[in-house]
Amino acid sequence: MSIANPLWGAPRIHGELLKLGIDIGQTSVAKYMARRRGSPSQGWKTFLNNHADGIAAMDLFVVPTISFRLLYGLLIMGHGRRQILWFGVTSNGWQISSTEACRWEQAPPLSDPRSGRGLW
Q: What is the pLDDT of residues 78-102, one digit of tens each?
């Protein structure tokens, strides 16, 4: 019963056996249950591999120059093919979110090409 229903624990199997008229203790059921080899659900690594095409990472960073000036950068990277989707640099930190620094009108559209719908 534990092999046919891997998500059932000892209490559930014990209850089912009692309904069938088999009088056995819950600790005995737990003792003789087949041990699971792996996790019943996907792990974090499997999730990332399955959904990498739809995931993008964004980073805002500051680069000090040799003349002690600061440059502010924005990087958007797609995880599917590990490619840079967008990269922008400006010397004014307030402009990093403006259209002048990032040129959002040229940025790739955030939509699912299979359905044609936007992500939001």
A: 888 888 988 888 887 666 555 444 5
